[in-house]
Amino acid sequence: MDRITAYAPGSASNLGPGFDCLGVAFTGKGDRVVATIEGPAGVRVRAVSDPRIPTDASRNTAAIAATAVLRRARSTAGLELEIEKGLPLAGGMGGSAASAVAGAVAANALLGFGLGTSDLLEAALEAEEVVAGRHADNVAPSLLGGAVLVLGLDPPRLGPVRVHPSLALVLVSPSYQVETAQARAVLPASIDRADAVAQAARLAGLVLGLERGDPDLIRGSMVDRIAEPARAPLYPGYPEARAAAFEAGALGVAVSGAGPTVVALTLEDAMASVAQALEAAYRRLGIEAHAHPARVDHQGARVLS
């Protein structure tokens, strides 16, 4: 076989109190990377589905991750990549991470290296570090599926989080971008002890709420006292959308990652009403927005063909 296609799902991260340490993969949207054995040693980007995606292999997360896989396998193979984006750029759906994961999985599968999860995660982290910083709250769920708590990075230590089957997700993407670097630049250099204690308690409560499917725990815990307040000016329409989602039955609402995508946790029977409410809230403010109701993607990255 000299050609293979890998897919990695999108992911919502932070989920309120889980800044840089909690993420969940979702169904229906993701990135595909087609890898072909061709040409001299190294990785090249042959084609991209969006002209804004860099074709320079040193700045493309799929290519960086694939290169890291080759290096770990001590291979001199030549690979060419085609990247098909199903996730928005600078959108808060884990797009750079999904491309990195798909690139790593494609290279590993095509060349039959048999690298394990830890090597693939490290390869994807190398790529993510170049464009968004070294954090695994998107690459881990995109690779493994489900919800993942990142317990450490050096070396990576991950804790899978069970999500109760009654829970669903609604993601809505307003029609503006927020660059990760921009969102990180406004974060506070230090925080009050009270905020640190509250954030830790809410993260613990949210993990329990996800596992138990407990609406009250989720409502009381899916709140961020650190990143979202500092980033509020970057997200026009978010306060109104959040309020509308709760009124429509959402259990919890937060900015996903660096945003501007908003993620709502709901029970399945409220998915449609929450999706409509989120879209309508943005549109009342003159901001186009598109909702994506989803379930948790438990499969993670996979080879399609």
Structural features, described:
Helix content is 37%, strand content 28%. It has 305 residues and is an alpha+beta fold. Strands 1, 2, 3, 4, 5, 6 and 11 form a 7-stranded mixed sheet that branches. Helix 1 runs antiparallel to helix 3 and helix 6 (193-212) packs antiparallel against helix 7 (215-221). The longest helix has 20 residues, at 193-212. It starts with a strand and ends with a strand. The model has no long low-confidence stretch (mean pLDDT 95).
Stretches where pLDDT is under 50 for at least 5 consecutive residues are: none
Query: Could you tell me the strand content as a percent range?
Result: 25-35%
* Top-tier CATH class of the largest domain: Alpha Beta
Inertia-based shape: globular
**Cα distance, first to last residue?**
10 Å
Task: Name the average pLDDT.
Answer: 95
Question: What's the CATH topology label of the largest domain?
Answer: Ribosomal Protein S5, domain 2
Q: How many domains, as an integer?
A: 2
Total strand count, please? 11
Number of helices: 10
> What's the CATH architecture name of the largest domain?
2-Layer Sandwich
What fraction, in percent, of the residue positions are helical?
25-40%
Structural class computed from helices and strand pairing: alpha+beta
